[in-house]
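Hi R.,

Here's the chain you asked about this morning:
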Amino acid sequence: MNHPLSPARRGSGDGDDAHALTGPYAVDALDPDERALVERHLESCPACRDEVRELRETAARLAATTSVPPPDRLRSRVMAEIGTVRQAPPRKVVPLRRPGLAGGTRLPWLAAAAMFVATVVLGALLADARGDRSDAGTRAADRIAAIVTAPDTRTATATGDGVTATALASRSRDEALILTSGLPAHDTAHVWQVWFMTDRDVRPAGLLDDVSAGQDAVGRLVAEGLGDAARIGVTLEPAGGSPAPTTPPVVMMTLPV
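And the predicted structure, written out as tokens:
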């Protein structure tokens, strides 16, 4: 793998280089020299420390949900893409003035891809959820990989009160991968529904896969029709879903422009 910190770049722009490696650092994918550089940078960069901590916490929760190995070709596809795009500086999360959780950061797709390497079992998870490990499972895994590795994929996150939500959105593919962890328990008469939101309207994106509640529970959805959505929200709805939200969002992710 060609990391952003190649020999030709060592010694110039160390702060930028260190930030470009926070994603791989979070999943222990650096050589000793790169690791040392990042650790020196983290001593004086609270934003990068927060980013590394959040990536590790999210990856740990997702990885804890399964021990099913991912397809080798899926891992290779994602790993091959990681070194091709460098990270942009993180942006501060700005809470929304409403109940529930809210946040957004332009965590670039490199960090998302690095997290995906640590939790690449998502392809197998999705196949398991659909009860199909053959062709349909492979297609689902390929679809997830295509979103993660799309050049324009951007990541939005929201965390708090034991809940973590991450959306990987690709405008060019008109798709988003939504992952949640730690959603509260609900009865069988309700479901978690995802919404694409603009200033003009709110559109149903789909239902999260059926998951149990708690810190180790992971919900996921690959949704089409991203369009010009500025936010992605999750609400509790009656079984089968609703044409419009009937409850306030428990989590809201603001997509980067």
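Strands lie at 101-103, 107-108, 154-160, 163-170, 175-181, 190-197, 202-207, 218-224, 231-238, 251-254.

Let me know if you need anything else.
M.
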